[in-house]
Amino acid sequence: MEETWTTELMEMALSIWNEKLTEVWRLLSLSPQEFKDGAVWAVATDIHNGLLAVGYGLLILFFAMSIFKSAIDFQELKRPEVALRFFIRFVAAKVAVTYGMEIMGVLFTICAGIMQTVVGGLGDTIAVSAKLPEAIKEAVIDAGFVETIPLFLIAAIGVLFITVMAFVIVLTVYGRFFKLYIYTALAPIPLATFAGETTSQTGKAFVKSYLGVCLQGAVIILACIIYNAFASTATPELIQGITAVSMVWSYFAETGFNMLILVILIKGADSVIREMMAL
Q: What is the mean pLDDT of the chain?
């Protein structure tokens, strides 16, 4: 079957979509250490190590603030249970700052295990790719000269729309990686707040937010799986007997709507996690 500019344009749009979804799957399977061959991770690690001294300084400051606020009467500090409570808090905060990267690595590994479990349990569900129906190709190829102009315009709009949505998805996944790096680089500062009883809420919020960023990957994967399952069983209905322009417009409208739902779900992954974890 001879291809036309219009069919090639439509197939290019679907090819871009499939390529970007494949890239999303590849990115979500990577750890921060593997992303971009570890170059960005090395920078985040250097910043983290450089801020350790600041974290230790804040650790002492928050600890002193906690003592002065909780034990105005220094005679109270002579009580063993009070002194032990402050000692345990200080040691725990010191461990959190010193081994912050290791702790965050464990949290990321747990979340990555959740994603692998989800993907592994669904087998070939993730392998669905968008394809241009043969009926659409035949209708476009058999179309008259007058119809070729609106067909080409529809195809061009479809390519632009699908390309933008595909890049939005990829940028969202890239944005998740940059959040992971930012959390890792600045971790010593919020983790130091665990030393103070009144400031520890900041440290807890930091850990919960970091977990939320890690779990965004699971939400994105689930959104893609649901989309693929839906797309594989909800192929746009092609009404025979209508003009090629109407058929192509109907196909792109329904296909674009399905893709838009996926984009909205992926962009809203952060909101879903915040609602689930009450952030």
A: 81
Q: What type of residue sits at position 278?
A: A
Q: CA 48, 50, 53, 59: dihedral to nearest 10 degrees? A: -20
Q: What's residue 52's pLDDT? A: 93
Range of the domain at 270: 5-277
What are 201's two structure tokens? 């809420």
Rounded to two decimals, the pTM is: 0.81
Query: Cβ(92)–Cβ(194) under 8 Å?
Result: yes
Structural domains counted in the chain: 1
Look-up: residue for tokens 């959740």? 114
